[in-house]
Specification:
The complex is a heterodimer of chains A (204) and B (186).
Chain A lengths: L5 H8 L5 H13 L1 H21 L9 H7 L4 H10 L2 H10 L8 E3 L17 H12 L6 E4 L5 E12 L5 E11 L2 E11 L5 E7 L1
Chain B lengths: L3 H27 L2 H16 L9 H22 L20 H18 L3 H12 L4 H8 L3 H19 L20
Helix pairs in contact in B: 1-2, 1-3, 2-3, 3-6, 4-7, 5-6, 5-7, 6-7
The chains are: A alpha+beta (204), B mainly alpha (186).
């Protein structure tokens, strides 16, 4: 049986391997429980890490740092902090740690990045997700049934907003029903400069 | 092409916007809020003295991270020892824990901080840049001044070490290999 070392699996989680290798990894994940465990632990660690250190983002910037840069920019800095959506996103990501159960997906934007999908989730649902994000109004449920009828996927965009830079974001809920087992996922996606929806974070 | 004056103003605005993330990075590196702000302040002052060498843009962010990281490593080398009074038991900025759920979150954060503090500095920094700051391996390599392959290796080993520290129920018959028993990094 083909196996990948931790470095390849870690790079897979980070979206740092090419698509062909990612597909090989996903094939291996289906039959290698230790590799699956590694992936789940890696993404779980990432979420815990972010939740721990992101507190700093919610703090006011100390006056001495503002003064070090220059008093004329102080007001601008405070205004920027209120307006920048990253703080809202960071705060939201803090919430997703609670209830972490069967897995987490963290996906970063990148030209060759691939998603770190947990193998029990069929690749087909990505297409459903993209269609729902592209065409469906918030609150609309889109359902997809796998050809073998063992997997159903429900996607519900729940909120759409645009940040100060004009980038669109959509929060959504995703429910995967597989052999009577339900996995509920919260996600956040944004539309990249090519017009495609990119998933920033998924929590199972 | 914008003027030097305009470029400087743009860089200052960019720096202000970057400060929360720099503080997060420095806080995790140092494990101490005051030392982190000292580090960020020092990096800002250093950067402001060299604004005429850099143009506003995405490169500026990674340049600032590099300054923070190199100044931290310089301080460590000067002291010959890492700060040991990390805020392991309690971060003074943590809110009080008024109920069991809050207390549970606090304990979870303590576990992560304790595990992070046990990592070698270079792995610690690589992990933060990739997993928290969202940089690519190539970008992190530029900040840390190492090859991208080294970043990949450091992140993988940091993850493995954190996993062993955070998930004590892990079965040892998995693919886990003790970090110390491995060959050196690339």
């Amino acid at each position: 049986m083909q196996r990948f070392n931790e470095e390849v699996l870690s790079a897979y989680v980070d979206g740092e391997i090419d698509i062909a290798t990612a597909e090989q990894v996903e094939n291996v994940l289906e039959s290698d429980p230790a590799a699956r465990r590694y992936i789940l632990e890696a993404v779980k660690t990432t979420v815990r890490l972010r939740a721990t250190v992101n507190d700093t983002l919610r703090e006011n910037i100390p006056e001495r740092l503002l003064a070090a840069i220059g008093p004329e920019t102080t007001t601008g800095a405070r205004r920027w902090r209120r307006a920048n959506p990253i703080f809202r996103i960071a705060a939201m990501l803090l919430l997703v740690v609670a209830g972490f159960g069967s897995g987490v997906l963290i996906y970063r934007n990148g030209s060759q990045a691939v998603s770190a999908f947990v193998p029990v989730i069929p690749a087909g649902y990505r297409h459903v997700l993209n269609q729902a994000l592209e065409y469906d109004l918030s609150g609309t449920i889109r359902k997809w049934q796998a050809p073998n009828a063992t997997v159903s996927v429900l996607v519900t965009p729940v909120k759409t907003y645009r940040d100060s830079r004009g980038i669109y974001f959509r929060k959504y809920h995703l429910e995967v029903i597989m052999d009577a087992e339900r996995n509920r996922i919260q996600g956040l996606a944004y539309r990249d400069t090519n017009g495609k929806w990119q998933t920033k974070a998924l929590v199972f | 092409m914008i003027s030097d004056r305009a470029n400087e103003e743009l860089l200052k605005e960019q720096l202000l916007g970057l400060i929360p993330r720099l503080r997060r990075f420095a806080r995790s590196l140092t494990g101490d809020p005051d030392k982190a702000d000292d580090l960020v302040q020092s990096a800002c002052e250093r950067a402001l003295n060299r604004l005429d060498h850099v143009r506003a843009g995405s490169y500026f962010d990674s340049w600032m991270y590099r300054i923070v990281y190199t100044r931290w490593i310089d301080r460590l080398r000067r002291r010959k020892t890492r700060n040991t009074h990390l805020s392991v038991l309690r971060n003074e900025n943590d809110p009080p824990a008024p109920n069991p759920r809050e207390a549970s979150k606090l304990v979870a954060a303590m576990d992560v901080r304790r595990a992070l503090s046990a990592l070698p500095e270079e792995r610690h920094a690589a992990l933060l840049l990739i997993c928290v700051e969202g940089y690519s391996y190539a970008e992190a390599a530029s900040i840390l001044n190492v090859p991208a392959g080294t970043v990949a290796s450091r992140v993988a080993r940091a993850r493995e070490a954190l996993g062993r520290l955070l998930y004590s129920d892990r079965k040892e018959n998995t693919r886990s290999v003790p970090v110390d028993a491995r060959e050196g990094e690339k």
